[in-house]
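SAMPLE LOG
Freezer: B-3
Tube label: C17
Construct: single chain, 289 aa
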Amino acid sequence: MDILREITPLTLHDCFSIFSREKQQFDFPLHTHEDIELNLILDASGSQRIVGDHLGVIGDKELVMVGSNLAHGWFTHQCCSDCIKEVTIQFHKDLFDERFLRRNQMVNIRNMIEHSKRGILFPESVIDAISPRILNLKNKTGFDSILELLSIFHDLSISRGTRLLSDSTFTTENYKYDSFKIEKVFEYLNTNFRQQINLIDVAKIVNMSEVSLSRFVKRHTGFSFLDSLNEIRLGHVSRLLLDSSLTISEIAFSCGFNNMANFNRIFKAKKGLTPNEFRKKYDCIRFFF
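STRUCTURE (predicted):
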């Protein structure tokens, strides 16, 4: 199946839209749209989620925020429930002005929206606390509904145990980092990921020591320098596995992995599948951007 480009019902005159429905199966295809989406799914254990290049089977409770233009979809798979509950909140990607988001008090929401470009999976403890408020949001109107939505966003943005689903380079949305130096670091990594990259070379670009740069990247992204580089490389690997007929070794070497054993280990640890299994798992889906 192809990825459907969805035009959501959200109008320019509304801040957000909310849809609540019960069904026996998922029947909407893999799709993208401009708007950011928060999706709450209950009683759908055994269903399958696809977000970017991530594929996983869900439990009884599911809460995911999907960023603008990130391919996503839920599929019945092995779900046997006869009453799946789904609540979807969609809001404009520019609902918050960028200058507003850069205010100190908005740092957590800003980071959450930034991370949504990869898809954010929230843990069950957060779902237990937030889902009653999401379910009740449709009963609020006007300004009260906006205040409650902002409050929900705030609580989600400070929650612990969240998981980013898709690799960073699989999204078509550009990243905006909080620091000019971190922008320069990732600009260099995204441009040169096919080549051998040493921490000392990147540190010189931003006039920092290796130790300072490592801490700097970790503080701004939550990942080590090497993990950040591998995220970029794996995003390109995933795209080539799906969109090309190159061999796995050709893809690995073209994306900067010079050791196949190391590449296979990193890929399996990240995806839960070998590169060959990943390619076969997605062989019925064609990705267009």
